[in-house]
Amino acid sequence: MSRSQADLGLTATVAVLACAAAAVSAPVAVTAVLGILILAAPGYLLGELLFGAAIEGLERVAVAAGLALCVPILGGLILYAAGVQLHRATWLGLLAGLTLACDLVLLWRRRSGRAASFGWAPRRLPRRHAMAFGAAVAIAVCAVGIARAGVVWQHYPGFTQLWLVRSQGNAASVNLGVANHEGKTARYRLVLLRNFRPAGSWNLTLANGQTWHRSPSSSGRRISVKLYKLPELAHSYRYVAIDGSGAQ
Amino acid sequence: MQLPVSAIAVSAAIGVLVVAGAYTAGRLGHASSAWADSAYWLGQVLILVPAAARLLSRRVLTAGETMTLVIVLTVAEYLVMICYSPAAFSYVDELQHWRSTMNVLQTGRLFSVNYLLPISPRYPGLEEVTSALASVSGLSVFTSGLIIAAVAHLLFVCVLYLLFREVSGSYRIAGVAVLCYASNSHFDSFDSMFIYQTLALPFLALTLLAAWRLASGRIAGQRARWLALAVLTIAATVVTHHVTSYVLPVALLVITVAALLTGNRRAAAWPAVLALMSSAAAAGWLVFAAPQTWSYLQPFADLTVQSIRALLAGGHSSAPPTSGGPPGDQLLGAAAVLIVSALLPVGWWQVWRRYRGQPWTVAMAILSASWYVLVAVRLTVTDGSELAGRAATFTFIPAAYIVALAIGHLAGIAVRWQARAVAAAVLVVLLMLMFDGLANGWPPYWERLPGAYQVAGSERSVEPEVIDGARWTLAALGPGNQFAADFGSYPVLGSYGDQNPLRNVAYLYTSPVYSQSDTLRAQAQALRFVWVDSRLSKSLPAYGQYFPVDPRAGKYTHPLPAADLDKFNHVPGVGRIYDSGNIVIYELPGT
C-alpha cells in the first residue's frame, strides 16, 4: 500500500488486530491500546469521508473526535433496537466493521479522485520546547502516581463483617458468614445461640480478606450469633440475630 | 520577559504535582491542616496565573500558542480532578453512572433499572461509549470512564474555543472567553466528571459549530456534509442528556431570532432548520423513550417557579440563608458576581459599537442576560445555589464571551494608554473569577482535600467499610431492595450495592422508639432494610443534613443520640442481619 493510503492501511490493521486480540484473549496491555485505537478509527475515517481536506487543524481533530464518540452511541442504539445485545463481540463487530467499510469506501473514493489522499506534514517543534513539554508530561505522570500512592498509603480502620440471613430458596437454613478486613490475620470465636442458648461454636483464624461461611439450620424461635475477637472473650465484637423458623 | 507556552505547561504540571501532594497529605491525616490547604492553592496558582498572565500579556500570542494554552489549562485541571480520586469513582454523580455502565456491561442491555438515578438509563449515551471502550479494551469501567470524560471535556473546550474564535474573529478574545468560561464553578467538576452532561456538551458545541458553518455561507459544496454532522451530533445530544438536548434548540432559536433582528435572513435559515430538527428529536425521545424525564425535572421547575412567584408577589421566597463557608470564599463569590455583573454591560456596549450587525454576537448578548436570572435564582430560590450552579454550565457560555469582549476592550485600553495598573487590574479580575470557580465549586470547602471518613459527607463518606457493606447487600440480598440509609451511605448503597435507597427516611433515625406510626409509614414505603451507621451519633453532618431528605437540615447542633440509632435492637421481629462495627443492617418485619 502506498504512503498516500497509509491511514487506511493502519486503521484496517487496527481493526483486524483488535478482533484477533479479542479472539486469543490477549493481555490487557495489548487490548487497551488496540481498544482505544479501534474506538477512534471510525471517527477519523468518517471525518475523512465527510470533509477530507476541507477542514484542518483543530477543527479536523474535533470533528473526528466527535464522530468517534457518536458511533458507539448511535450504532449501539440501532443494534440494540434490532435486538442485538451489547456485548464485546457486538462492539467489536460494530467498530471493526465500520472501520473496514469506511476504509473500502475511502479507498474507492481516493482511487476515483473524489477524495484527497492521505498527507502527513508533521510540524517541527524547537528542541527546547519539545523537551519542556516532555518534562511537563513526566511531571504530570508523577503527580498522578503520587495521588495513587496516597490512596494506597491512606490508613482506614480495619473491620470485620458478620452476617446472618435467611437462605434464599431454602427456608430450612440460614447463611452465616464472617469476613476479615482488619488489615491482618485475626482469630475469632463464633458462638451460635438458639433461643438464647448456645447451640454451637467455632474457632476461626482468618487472613486479611478471607471469608468464612456456614449454613446452619433455621430451627428455633430466635437465632443469634456472637463473634468474639480473640483473646477478648468478655464482650462480643459483633452480634447478629434473626427470628428462626420456629421449629425445634 | 514573557514565558513561552512550553514553560507555562511545565508550571501547570508542577502545579498539578503540588496539588497531588496536598491531596496525599490530606489522605495521610492532614486534611484539616492549613499548610496542606495552602499547598493546594499554591498548586492552583502555578496552574492558573502563568496561563492567564500570558493570555493577557502585551506580547501577542500566535493562534497556535493560544490554543495550546487553553489545552494545557484544561488538561491540568482535569488531572487535578483525577488526583482527587485516582483509584475509583468517589463523586456521587459518577457513582450513579458507574452503576448504569455496569448494568450495560453485565446484561448487554440498555435501559436497565438504576435505582440511584432512574433517569440515567433513559439517556444511555455515556454508558454506551464507556461500555464499548471497556469491552474492546479490557480496561476497567473507571479507567474507561476517565478516558471518555477526558476526551469529551477537552473536545468541548476546543470546540468552544473554535466557536468563540469564529464568532469574534479573534483567537485572543476566544482564549480569554474560554478562560472566563473555565471560571464557572462547575467547570472542573460537573462539566468534566464521568456524568452524562460531560459527554453531551461537546455534541451541543459541535452542533453549534455546524450551524455556524452552515449559516456563514462560505462553504459552498460542503453544506450537506455539515448538515450530516449536525444531524449526528443532534441525535447524540438527545440520546445522551436531557437538559442539554433542551438547551440546544433554545440556543439555536435565539440565534435565529438574532439573525432576523439584524436583518440577516440567510443567517437565520440554517439555525432555524437545526432548531426544528433538535426540537423534534428531543420531543420524540422524551415521548417515546424517556417519558420519565418530565417527572424527574418537574420538582426542580416547580420549586423555581414557586420561589420566583413568591418573590414577584412581594413576599419572601423559601430560600434558606446563603450557605456558609469561610468568609474569604463568600467574599470572593460576592466579588465574582459583582465583577461579571459589571463587565456584562461593558461587553454589551462593545457589541452595540462593533458587532450589532452580527447575529451570533447579538444572540450571545441576548443569552448572556440570563446571568442576572441566575444570580436571582441563586439568591432567592430554595436550593438555588445547586440550580444556579447546574445552569451556569450553559448560561456561562454566552456570558463568558461577552465578558471576554469587555476584558479585551479594557486590556486594549491598557495597551493604548501604557497603563500597567489597568493591565494588572484586568489580570486580577480574571484570576478572581477563576479562583472563585475553584473556591465555591465542587468539592466543597469541607472536602477540598480528600481524607478520613466524614459523617454525611460526599466523597469522604465513600470508604472501605461502607463500600464493602454495600457490596455485601448485593451478594447476600440481591439487587433492588428498598433501603433506608443516611446521606453519605446512600449513593454507595445504590451504586456498589445496586439497592434501592429511599430518600425520605429521616423519621426512622430521629426518635428513641420505633412507633406504630413509624411501622405503618415504613410499610407504606415498602421498606425492607434499615442501614444504620453508628458514626452518625459521633459528629455533626458535614453537608448539614444526615439524610437525603432531612427536615432538620442545617439546624443540627448535636449529633444524633445513640439511642435513636440503637432502638431497632429492641424491637420484636426486627432482624439484625449484618454487623461490621460501625454499620449495622436491620431487616424490618413483615417483609
Topology:
The complex is a heterodimer of chains A (248) and B (591).
Chain A: H1 6-23, H2 28-50, H3 57-81, H4 88-111, H5 127-153, E1 159-166, E2 174-181, E3 186-194, E4 197-206, E5 211-214, E6 222-229, E7 238-243
Antiparallel strand pairs in A: 1-2, 2-5, 3-4, 3-6, 6-7
Chain B: H1 5-30, H2 34-55, H3 63-84, H4 92-107, H5 125-137, H6 141-168, H7 171-181, H8 196-216, H9 223-240, H10 242-261, H11 265-288, H12 292-312, H13 327-355, H14 359-368, H15 370-380, H16 384-416, H17 420-439, H18 464-477, E1 482-484, H19 490-495, E2 500-502, H20 516-524, E3 529-533, H21 562-566, E4 575-579, E5 583-587
Plain-language structure description:
- The complex is a heterodimer of chains A (248) and B (591).
- Chain A is of the alpha+beta class and 248 residues long.
- Chain A has helices at residues 6-23, 28-50, 57-81, 88-111, 127-153, and strands at 159-166, 174-181, 186-194, 197-206, 211-214, 222-229, 238-243.
- Chain A has a 4-stranded antiparallel beta sheet, with no helix packed on it. Chain A has a 3-stranded antiparallel beta sheet with strand order 1-2-5, with no helix packed on it.
- Chain B folds into 2 domains: 88-447, no CATH class; 459-587, 3-Layer(aba) Sandwich (Rossmann fold).
- A 5-stranded mixed beta sheet of chain B has the order 2-1-3-5-4.
- In chain B, helix 19 links the parallel strand 1 and strand 2.
- The model of chain B is unreliable at 317-322 (pLDDT under 50).
- The interface between A and B is large, with 81 and 93 residues.
